[in-house]
Design a protein that fits this description.
CATH superfamily: Jelly Rolls
CATH topology: Jelly Rolls
Radius of gyration: 16 Å
CATH architecture: Sandwich
CATH class: Mainly Beta
Helix content: under 10%
Mean pLDDT: 96
Number of helices: 0
Structural class: mainly beta
Strand content: over 45%
Number of strands: 10
Largest sheet: 8 strands, mixed
Distance between the termini: 29 Å
Number of domains: 1
Low-confidence stretches: none
Length: 124
């Protein structure tokens, strides 16, 4: 069985507090682009669009909810994120964050050690 892909989920509970949760996406081996050899893919998720996001080196925000359900993938630099419940994590290149805290206290974020760049995929 193919190895699952890890991801962090950011969500709001029924009281409006945000939390991090470690999740994973199961992978399946499929003939994705014949005649190329099989690749491992997850179940597709519908998306609206994607965009690049750059955090200036001194950018900081105390708390805000996610503007939409989105997948955040760090490409350059590091980003510290924290939840309204007090948890903190550092995201480095290649880290994935499924942001679903569209209500409640939200989360805060700041780039570490200079600017950071991420790819954001807006999900349906």
């Amino acid at each position: 069985m193919p190895e699952a892909i890890p991801c962090v989920r950011l969500f709001a509970d029924s009281a409006g507090d945000s939390h991090f949760e470690d999740i994973s996406y199961n992978m399946t081996s499929v003939q994705y682009a014949p005649p190329a050899p099989a690749l491992e893919i997850s179940t597709p998720t519908s998306a609206q669009n994607f965009f690049w996001l750059r955090f200036p080196k001194d950018w900081h925000d105390a708390a805000h909810p996610s503007p939409r359900r989105q997948l955040f993938v760090v490409l350059e630099g590091q980003v510290e994120g924290w939840t309204s419940s007090g948890d903190s994590r550092i995201f480095a290149p290649g880290d994935r964050l499924l942001m679903e805290d569209t209500t409640g206290g939200g989360h805060g974020a700041r780039p570490l050690y200079g600017e950071a760049v991420a790819l954001v995929i807006a999900l349906e």
